[in-house]
Automatic annotation (TrEMBL):
Entry superkingdom: Bacteria
UniProt domain GFO/IDH/MocA-like oxidoreductase: residue ranges: 154-243
Residue span, Gfo/Idh/MocA-like oxidoreductase N-terminal domain: 3-109
Protein name stated in the entry: Oxidoreductase
Length: 331
């Protein structure tokens, strides 16, 4: 059977999803909506879909089995709830929101509806990530170092903290999610966010342009994740794991494992967006939700850590993710 798919938000990210779905058997793009109606109609005409004048019209149309939400994180009011109410399966791009209480409320509605749900944490679908996770399964991870360095995106809303959540919430969330996926849950985060140059680019910016987060995992491992949108001369993203008997890094699409018996490097050629979208379509078609490697609940858990880091940077105190209260070490 064909899985009929709709899109709310049809910017560049959405169109990339649409292009990968063109290559997936049983996937059919049937409906799109964007506040920019000119763009919505152009995408509809290009890919053989129908353009709608509102998200409510699209969701209630009866023309879709599944929905991709590709709007910015501040523009998601009521969408997930409406999809769940209509029994429409859901893939929500990351981050899934900016307020954890609201996201948890949506999560409960989604879980109660019984729909299949996924999120935009596409790096989990890399073959080298699966190999890294398997290799580290019986290892004691002691130190984790992660980074996301690059130039500033061109969207105006990205520089506004209240609309993007900042770089950790909006971009470096991918690296943080890999840490959760591979090394386990976060116990405590302590962050510093600063504005060093961003006001020269946008005088009204409220987002930071350099930030670093120290953390402790539930396993006892410690680590750091550093972000900057000022690195216009270099783009890097990766995660490194250290233990007494191994070193493992995922640097972009390159995996390196070094221990007493090997020093191997492998470059992935997997299109992780294609693999993510194929898994979502197959999960719906075959009713196998376990094919999805990062569902809405997982995305909410990752969001909770990034928002806790924002709370820490604002308060100057360590925070326990998901609780929103200062972490106090016992004597």
């Amino acid at each position: 059977m064909a899985v009929r798919i709709g899109f709310i938000g049809v910017g560049g990210m959405a169109e990339h999803h649409i292009q990968t779905l063109q290559r997936i058997e049983h996937a059919e793009i049937t409906a799109v909506f964007d506040l920019n109606q000119t763009r919505s109609k152009e995408i509809a005409e290009t890919y053989g879909a129908k353009s709608y004048e509102s998200s409510d019209q699209l969701i209630a149309s009866g023309e879709i089995d599944a929905l991709f939400i590709c709007t910015p994180p501040f523009a998601r009011s009521g969408i997930e709830e409406a999809a769940a109410h209509h029994g429409i399966h859901l893939l929500a791009e990351k981050p899934v929101g900016l307020h954890i209480d609201e996201v948890r409320r949506k999560e409960r509605i989604i879980l109660e509806s019984g729909i299949i749900h996924s999120s935009g944490y596409c790096l989990r679908y890399l073959d080298i990530v699966a190999k890294a996770k398997a290799y580290l399964a019986d290892k004691q991870i002691d130190l984790v170092l992660a980074y996301r360095l690059g130039d500033m995106p061109g969207m105006r809303w990205w520089t506004i903290m209240e609309q993007s959540g900042g770089q950790l919430v909006e971009q470096s969330t991918h690296q943080l999610d890999l840490i959760r996926y591979i090394a386990g849950e976060f116990k405590e985060v302590s962050a510093i966010h600063e504005q060093r140059y961003i006001h020269n680019i946008d005088p009204n910016a409220t987002a930071y342009d350099v930030g670093t987060v120290s953390f402790v995992l539930e396993s006892g491992a410690i680590g750091n994740i550093t972000s900057s949108c000022l690195a216009k001369y270099v783009g890097r993203s990766g995660v490194e794991f250290y233990g007494h008997d191994f070193y493992l890094s995922i640097d972009g699409a390159v995996l390196r494992i070094k221990d007493d018996h090997q020093d191997v490097t492998e470059t992935s050629e997997v299109d992780f967006y294609y693999e993510q979208n194929k898994a979502f379509v197959e999960a719906i078609r075959t009713n196998q939700p376990n094919l999805v490697l990062c569902d809405y609940s997982d995305a909410a858990d990752t969001l909770a850590v990034t928002l806790a880091a924002n709370d820490s940077a604002a308060s100057g105190k360590p925070i326990v993710p998901g609780r929103g209260i200062p972490f106090v070490k016992s004597n």
